Amino acid sequence: MPVNGMVCASLNKINTLRAEFFIARKTIFAPQNKRNTTNTIISFAILSIALGLAFMIISVSVSVGFKKEIREKLSGFSSHIQIVYFDSNSSFETEPIQRNQHFIPFLDTLSGIRHYNVYARKPGIIKSEEETQGIVLKGIDTDFDWNFFATKLIKGKLLKIEKNTKSNDILISQNLANLLKLDTGNSLIVYFIQDPPRTRKFNITGIYSTGLEEFDNLFALCDIKHIQKLNNWNENQISGFEIWINKFEDIDQMETAITNLAGNFFTEDGARLRVMSIKELYPQIFDWLNLLNANVWIILSIMTVVVAINMITALLILIIDRLKMIATLKALGASDWLIQKIFTLNALYIISKGFLIGDVFAISIVFLQHKFKFLPLDPESYYMDYVPMDFNVIHILMINLGVVAVVTSIMLISSRIVSKFKPSLILKFD
Fold first, then answer.
1. Could you tell me which of 408, 331, 324, 353 has the C-alpha nearest to residue 27?
2. Where in the sequence is the domain holding 378, given as residue range(s)?
3. How high is the pLDDT of residue 123?
4. 94 and 228 share one domain
5. CB-count burial class (<10 Å; 0-12, 13-18, 19+) for 416
6. Residue 289 has what pLDDT?
7. Which pLDDT does position 208 carry in this prediction?
8. Within this chain, do residues 66 and 106 fall inside the same structural domain, yes or no?
9. Which of 226, 246, 271 is the last residue of a domain?
10. Would you place residue 13 in the very low, low, confident or very high pLDDT band (cuts 50, 70, 90)?
C-alpha cells in the first residue's frame, strides 16, 4: 500500500503538471480565441513588450555610441590628457616648456598610457582670392600617432615628418578646402599676426574630415619646426605633451597619477606645468554628454512603466475573460496555486514572444546602422553625419534581464488575483 500510494501521488503530480500546460495552451491557442478579444489582448501585450524592449535597446545603443564617437573624435584632436605651461592664458598662443622633462621615463612605465607625443600650436590667418579664415596650426613631430587621422583622411596622404628636415606639407580639413576652394597639390599661404608679421607657404598634401565642425573649421597639421621657428623657440621648446590612455573610463585616475608625476613640481627654468584632461578642456561638451545619460534613464524608466502597465492590463483582461473557467476549475477542486500557474504560463508565453520579437528587431536595427550607417544626422548640430549605434551584447543582456525582473514581478503579483475569486458567486450569476 505505501508503494501504491507513492505511485498514485507521482502520477497525480505528473497529471497535474500536464493539466497546467494543457489548460494554459488551450487558453492561448484555442481556435475560438481568434474570434474574440483574447487574441487581440495577447497580440497587443506581445507588441507592447516587443516595442518597449526594442526602443530601450536602441536608445541605449545610440547614447553609448554617440558618447563613444564624440570622445574618440575629441581625443583624436586633443588627446585624453595634456601637460602644458601653467598659466591662465586660454588663447592658442602658448608659453613654451622644455621637451626634456624629468617625468618622461616614468611615463614610459606608467600602466594605462597608450601613447604620448609633443606638439606646438600657433594661430594664423588663411587668405584666398575670395575668403579669409582663421586657423590654428598644430605642429607635430616624428613621434605623432597617425591612427586617428588615417581613418579620417578622405584625399591625398598624411604628412611625413623627418627629424632633420623641415617639411612644408600641411594637412587641412574638407571644410577649409571647400571654403577656400583648395585641393591637394595646391599651395596655401598662412599669415601670422606678430611683430614683425610673418607668412609661411605650405603645400596641401592631404585633406581630412571628422564631422566635428568646430574643429574641422579651425585646425590644420604641419611640421612642428615651423611653429618653433615662428615663435623663436629652440628645438627643445614645445607647447606641451599629448597623452592617450587605454581606457577612457580611467581618465580621472590617470590624470591624478600624471599630476603626481608632472604637475606638482617646477621645471629647471622656473616654470610650473599643468595637467589637464579632455574633460577640463571641453567641459560644455561633456556636460552635454552627461545630460544624455539622464535622458536615457528617463526613457528606460518610462518604457519600463509602459510595458509593465500593458502587461498588467493584458493579464487582468485575460483573467476576467476566463472567470467562468477559473470558477469551474475551483469547483472541481483545483487549488489557487494551480490556477495561478496556468496564468503564469500564459504570461511567460507573452513575455518570451515579446522579447524574441523585440530583440530581433532592435539587434537588426543596431547592427545594420553600426555596419552601414544609413540613418543620417546634421553634422553641424551633432558633430557627425550619421546616427552612431554601439553594438554591445552586455548592454543588451542587461536591458533584457532588467525588464524580465520587473515584468516577472508584476506578472506574479497580478496572477495572484485569481485566489480572490469565489466560484460560488461567479457560477451563481453566470
1. 324
2. 22-71+286-428
3. 94
4. yes
5. middle
6. 86
7. 95
8. no
9. 271
10. very low
- Say yes or no to pLDDT of 305 above 70: yes
Q: Is residue 2 assigned to a domain?
A: no
Using CA atoms, how far apart are residues 45 and 312, in angstroms rounded to an integer? Answer: 9
Examine residue 390 and state whether it is found in any structural domain, yes or no: yes
Does pLDDT of 417 surpass 70?
no
- Same domain? 65 vs 108: no
Q: Number of folded domains in the chain?
A: 2
Tell whether 6 is covered by a domain. Answer: no
- State whether 152 and 291 are in the same domain: no
pTM over 0.85: no
The residue among 242, 271, 300 that closes a domain is 271
Write down the residue that cell numbers 597623452 correspond to. 243
Residue 411 has pLDDT above 60, yes or no: yes
- Kindly state whether residues 141 and 212 are assigned to the same domain: yes
d(CA 268, CA 270): 5
Confidence of residue 29 (pLDDT cuts 50, 70, 90): low
Asked if residue 83 has pLDDT above 70, the reply is yes
267 and 166 within one domain = yes
CB 83 within 8 A of CB 405: no
Q: Are residues 201 and 246 in the same domain?
A: yes
Q: Residue 7: inside a domain, yes or no?
A: no
Tens of pLDDT, residue by residue over 242-262, are 999 999 999 999 999 999 988
**Are 184 and 327 in the same domain?**
no
